[in-house]
Amino acid sequence: MSNIELYQIIQESKRGIQRSQNTLMNLFWDKIYYFILSKTHNKAEAEDITIRTFTKVFKKLKLYNDDFDFYTWVKAIAYNTMIDQLRKKKHNNISLDDELNPIDIEAAMPSPEQYLISKQNAKKLNAEIENLPPIYREVIELRYLEDKTYKEIAEALNLTLSNVKVRLLRAKKLLEDSISM
Predict the structure, then answer these.
(1) C-beta neighbour count of 97 within 10 angstroms
(2) Alpha-carbon distance 146 to 20, whole Å?
(3) Long-range contacts for 18-21 (Cβ within 8 Å, ≥24 apart)?
(4) What percent of the chain lies above the pLDDT cut of 70?
(5) How far apart are CA 162 and CA 6, in angstroms?
(6) Which value, to the nearest 10 degrees, does the dihedral of the CA atoms of residues 171, 148, 135, 159 take?
(7) Which helix (H) or strand (E) holds 98?
(8) Residues 176, 128: Cα–Cα separation, whole Å
(9) How far apart are CA 54 and CA 66, in angstroms?
(10) What confidence category does residue 74 fall into, taking pLDDT thresholds of 50, 70 and 90?
């Protein structure tokens, strides 16, 4: 693909044209996925980080400066997304082998208020998932409730891998928009 064609696809994507956004994602998905996989050595985690990367790319696309290489820009977003994910994961992991005293265990446990807020947020999220159009609800449920890989979802729904990725992106965007209201 020439630089001119890529430039045109990026400009159309900035204007919100889905076909162009799908093309951009298809062009760079494998490069970003394998970049993340080479760092994490975990296929499921690499898939999650890659989908989060493209969610951020399309959210921030209007900020992209055409003077810079697009792949480098996307790769930087991917790297930062991976670092954020690994930090969150590091803070959420408590090993059973770790020696914890009772004070440490209490500190790791949520307060009653935090537990209640978390439970309310989960109820709200489940309600919002139920309100999604069926094509988006089923990919969200398969991915996050049944913990299926993108390939398994594609096979189960008789879709291409690209369609699964796009539906997940759109479903997450719809959820973000409805929850932020």
Answers:
(1) 5
(2) 30
(3) 18/166, 21/58
(4) 80
(5) 19
(6) 120
(7) none
(8) 10
(9) 18
(10) very high
